[in-house]
């Protein structure tokens, strides 16, 4: 290979359905060498196709395959952009998370579905491609999510204190990192991240998301409504646990609001609901931190180095303020650890792809509940 240090590409599509984030990078020990990052938006028709696949309907097989083909073609365009200044023979592999359309870890038997076309992407890009990272974890008794705590531990742990990484995408997950350990001490989904806020913003201000949380900050938290939201039994469920749009979605929000209105007099202002949904993310995250620290037998205010935020939620100033208030901990973005918050998940899957290519098992027993370490991912050679 022309380069002694191979490059890897990580591709990530989240529950926001906005498109694909991509990074080109290499790894040197615990250092991430970011070469380039880029993104490509989903066309509206593809967004709608994926959204329709979240719930059962007719002709799912054909519709999912066609959506996957279109997405693979977009991914190949993104790879071309990432590789425009290098010899692509230096890229050892593409690691593509795919687009999650079903995540059902608690049914019998459990499963999780990501739409991707690894063979097509490998053919279009002429680069070995790794996909389907969640299936092996589920097959060995895990939840299939979150997978990123292993990456967080490898690159974000510190030598003297526990550190807590918070990924706020559509769903919020945490990684409690132990000093000088090879595994994440604890990791799980705490509940909704941006997904409910985005749904409400789309309905009421005709925007895909609440920019910087400005709309939420114009309202007031309805404490009774927040308490009603927090009655959901997911929040008190013992980890390991994971969730997704199958649980926290428009139907969930509609039902919660209808039940609340039937018990309480007076109107609910739309911006107050948004403020309460923002508070829900902060409160459920704070509860999750307490659960993790209790099981780890540590005092968050004495033993934690603070919270490091990644994902789109890091840019929601209203949410960040709420987190500081709720947790009483220092809140920073992962920029302080050397990588921009928006790029962490794509970088994580680039690393997971590198582990797959290297046939390196990953232990996620304290995050997903898998009973043994696994080599994750299915490899499609170029």
Structure description:
With 382 residues, this protein is of the alpha/beta class. 38% of the residues lie in helices and 22% in strands. It has 13 helices and 13 strands. The chain has helices at residues 44-52, 60-82, 118-125, 135-139, 149-156, 195-204, 214-217, 223-229, 250-263, 270-296, 300-303, 317-327, 344-357; strands at residues 7-12, 19-28, 31-41, 91-96, 99-104, 111-115, 129-131, 162-168, 171-177, 184-192, 304-310, 331-333, 378-380. The strands form 3 sheets. A 6-stranded mixed beta sheet has the order 3-2-1-4-7-13, with helices on both faces. Strands 10-9-8-11-12 form a 5-stranded mixed beta sheet. A two-stranded antiparallel sheet has the order 5-6. It is globular and about 65 Å long. The protein starts with 6 loop residues before the first strand and ends with a strand. The model has no long low-confidence stretch (mean pLDDT 95).
Essential attributes:
382 residues; alpha/beta; six-stranded mixed β-sheet; five-stranded mixed β-sheet; 13 strands; 22% strand
Q: What quaternary form is this?
A: single chain
Class computed from helices, strands and strand pairing: alpha/beta
The fraction of residues assigned to DSSP E strands is 15-25%
Question: For the CA atoms, what is the radius of gyration?
Answer: 20 Å
Order of helices and strands: EEEHHEEEHEHHEEEHHHHHHEHEHE
Straight-line distance between termini: 15 Å
Summed up, the helix count is 13
Which spans of ≥5 residues are poorly predicted at pLDDT below 50?
Answer: none
Largest sheet: 6 strands, mixed
Shape: globular
Number of strands: 13
Going across the biggest sheet, name each strand in turn. Answer: 3-2-1-4-7-13
Give the overall pLDDT as a whole number.
95
Proportion of helical residues: 25-40%
């Amino acid at each position: 290979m022309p380069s002694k240090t191979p490059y890897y590409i990580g591709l990530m599509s989240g529950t926001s359905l906005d498109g694909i984030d991509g990074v080109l990078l290499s790894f040197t020990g615990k250092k991430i060498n970011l070469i380039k990052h880029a993104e490509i938006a989903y066309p509206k028709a593809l967004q709608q196709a994926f959204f329709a696949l979240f719930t059962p309907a007719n002709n799912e097989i054909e519709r999912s395959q066609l959506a996957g083909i279109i997405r693979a073609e977009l991914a190949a365009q993104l790879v071309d952009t990432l590789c425009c200044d290098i010899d692509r023979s230096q890229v050892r592999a593409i690691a593509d998370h795919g687009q999650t359309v079903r995540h059902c870890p608690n049914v019998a038997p459990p499963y999780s579905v990501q739409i991707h076309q690894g063979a097509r992407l490998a053919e279009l890009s002429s680069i070995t491609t790794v996909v389907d990272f969640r299936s092996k974890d589920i097959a060995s008794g895990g939840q299939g999510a979150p997978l990123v705590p292993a990456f967080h531990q490898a690159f974000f742990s510190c030598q003297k204190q526990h550190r807590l990484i918070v990924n706020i995408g559509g769903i919020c997950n945490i990684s409690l990192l132990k000093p000088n350990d090879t595994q994440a001490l604890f990791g799980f989904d705490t509940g909704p991240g941006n997904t409910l806020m985005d749904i409400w913003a789309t309905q009421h201000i005709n925007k895909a998301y609440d920019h910087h949380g400005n709309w939420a900050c114009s309202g007031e938290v309805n404490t009774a409504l927040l308490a009603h939201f927090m009655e959901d039994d997911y929040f008190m469920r013992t980890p390991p646990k994971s969730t997704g749009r199958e649980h926290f979605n428009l139907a969930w929000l509609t039902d919660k609001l209808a039940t609340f209105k039937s018990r309480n007099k007076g109107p609910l202002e739309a911006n107050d609901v948004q403020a309460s949904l923002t508070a829900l993310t902060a409160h459920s995250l704070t509860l999750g931190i307490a659960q993790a620290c209790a099981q780890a037998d540590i005092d968050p205010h004495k033993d934690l180095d603070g919270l490091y935020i990644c994902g789109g939620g890091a840019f929601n100033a209203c949410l960040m303020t709420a987190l500081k208030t709720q947790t009483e901990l220092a809140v920073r973005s992962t920029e302080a650890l050397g990588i921009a918050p928006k790029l962490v998940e794509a970088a994580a899957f680039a690393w997971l792809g590198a582990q797959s290519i290297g046939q390196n098992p990953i232990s996620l027993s304290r995050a997903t509940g898998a009973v043994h370490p696994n080599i994750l991912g299915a490899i499609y050679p170029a």
